């Protein structure tokens, strides 16, 4: 009898000390499944976008390279200069001729491809075609560097303003925050290469349209130099702020002279 009572007491103590089992809820299981699926989907989309940017970027760089080769081939086919060994006939003395002005092309139609941008800091293969306009679907989402219509053309007095994505569509301006003062930013057209030098960067709201003025950030001031302004989102995917990179014109190299030394400068973003 005593043994039976002792066993009963042990059973009661066991019931008091035993932890209740956690009941599995159907709602909880479904919630965990959705949470796991969401994380996997987010990782997959991020990978897809990164991989897609790499593919599109390579494609756009190949297209820019083909356009550059086309221009160089056309320049090579142009009529050769007169033979310098042939003694020219005496001519009347003329006044000294000043160095040729930097050629400036007329602004093309919207959507037209007219230039190629190189930034050695971003790597030897970094090059993207410049198209006229900044339409999201037709220009920026297509992987171009977009030229703000009405802004200066390469080599012209005033402000050549351009824009490009930092995320998706090849992400041309992804490494724009890696620029260092003095870095070359080269714009090639059919006439030749225009070398600009990076000077400074600033972060502004998306409403700060003054960065596109003939003299950036100056209101009602006439153009007093040759500027290049790069605009993009900062940070990435933020549509309310912009990173603005400014550069000043340094020199023009005609196509016939071959690529400028600025294109072979080192540096890696």
Automatic annotation (TrEMBL):
InterPro entries the UniProt entry points to: Sortase (IPR005754), Sortase_Class_E (IPR053465), Sortase_dom-sf (IPR023365), Sortase_E (IPR042003)
Gene source species: Microbacterium radiodurans
GO MF: hydrolase activity
Name of the protein: Class E sortase
Active site residues of this protein: 165 (proton donor/acceptor), 233 (acyl-thioester intermediate)
Database matches in Pfam families: Sortase
Residues passing through the membrane, by range: 24-50
Domain of life: Bacteria
Keywords tagged on the record: Hydrolase, Membrane, Transmembrane, Transmembrane helix
Region called Disordered, residue ranges: 69-91
């Amino acid at each position: 009898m005593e043994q039976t009572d002792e066993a009963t007491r042990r059973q009661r103590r066991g019931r008091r000390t035993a932890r209740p089992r956690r009941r599995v809820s159907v709602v909880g299981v479904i919630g965990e499944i959705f949470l796991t699926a969401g994380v996997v989907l987010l990782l997959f989309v991020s990978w897809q976008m990164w991989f897609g940017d790499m593919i599109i970027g390579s494609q756009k760089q190949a297209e820019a390279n083909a356009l550059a080769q086309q221009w160089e081939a056309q320049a090579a086919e142009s009529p050769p200069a007169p033979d310098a060994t042939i003694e020219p006939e005496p001519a009347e003395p003329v006044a000294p001729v000043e160095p040729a002005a930097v050629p400036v092309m007329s602004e093309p139609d919207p959507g037209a491809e007219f230039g190629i941008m190189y930034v050695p800091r971003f790597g030897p293969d970094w090059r993207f075609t410049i198209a006229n306009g900044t339409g999201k679907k037709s220009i920026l989402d297509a992987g171009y560097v977009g030229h703000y219509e009405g802004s200066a053309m390469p080599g012209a007095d005033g402000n050549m303003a351009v824009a490009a994505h930092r995320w998706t569509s090849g992400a041309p301006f992804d490494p724009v925050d890696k620029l260092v003062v003095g870095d070359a930013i080269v714009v090639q057209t059919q006439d030749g290469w225009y070398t600009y030098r990076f000077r400074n960067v600033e972060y502004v709201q998306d409403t700060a349209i003054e960065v596109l003025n003939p003299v950036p950030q100056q209101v009602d001031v006439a153009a007093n130099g040759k500027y290049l302004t790069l605009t993009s989102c900062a940070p990435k995917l933020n549509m309310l702020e912009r990173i603005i990179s400014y550069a000043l014109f340094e020199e023009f190299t005609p196509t016939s002279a071959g690529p400028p030394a600025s294109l072979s400068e080192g540096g890696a973003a």
